[in-house]
Amino acid sequence: MDSPVLHEFRRQASLFLKEKIRTARLALTDVTPPQLLAEEATNGDLSAPNMQTMRLISRAAFEVDDYWRIVDILHKRLSKFETRNWRSSYKALTLLEYLLTHGPQSIAEEFQSDEDGITQMASFQYVDEKGFNWGLSVRNMSERIIMLLEDRSFLKEERDRARKVTVGIKGFGSFCKRPTISERCNTEQRLGSALNDPISDDKTWDHHPFCDRDNNHSQASLLSTSG
Where would I find the ENTH domain in this sequence (predicted)? Predict the structure, then answer.
């Protein structure tokens, strides 16, 4: 068994390598930061996509170019569901559920073609060594998404509910505020580093390009969040 020091060294080395790869992809290819976020939010590792990351992806999805990049990643993750690689598809379901309730209205129509694959995921069965029933989690999420895709009234209710929650949180200043160092999301820090634009102490959250704030979308934007 590795010592704690060796384990930490390997972890730091892995993070360093991933950071270099992100930087190279942003510099040498046409990949966009939201596209990288969507890829990382739906990868096969053990971590779940956090709420802040999904919120950033949802905001980016209102721009046409990033919209197609994000949905393309989700289509690929959902179409490649396998028992041994189930985490990636499950995380794609989690992100899709968030986009259906918070993102562009066109998301619901876009993923009608994935219904059969999502329905098949409901039969997945897996209980981990700690006794957690991941199969049940996948089934519950897939069934919820099918309801959102098929029932327009239910989708509208859930979008209205999500909007009210978002407005309520913004009323307390929780979204667009200047965060402390300890509050900053690791994904945000990685994204800032990859862009050679680290989130410094003098940069407020209001200036983030995907921060929730009242502004007018460009003509290139997709539909509004209204249900």
Answer: 26-159
Distance of CA 22 to the CA centre of its chain: 17
pTM of this structure: 0.67
Calpha distance 191→22 (Å, rounded): 9
CA 48 to each of CA 26, 43, 53, 90, 224: distance values in angstroms, whole numbers, following the listed order: 24, 9, 10, 9, 27
Compute the distance between CA of residue 89 and CA of residue 80 in angstroms, rounded to an integer.
7
User: Residue 74: what pLDDT?
Assistant: 97
Residue 174 has pLDDT above 50, yes or no: no
Would you tell me which CATH number, out of the four given (3.30.9.10, 1.10.630.10, 1.10.287.380, 1.25.40.90), belongs to the domain 32-170?
A: 1.25.40.90
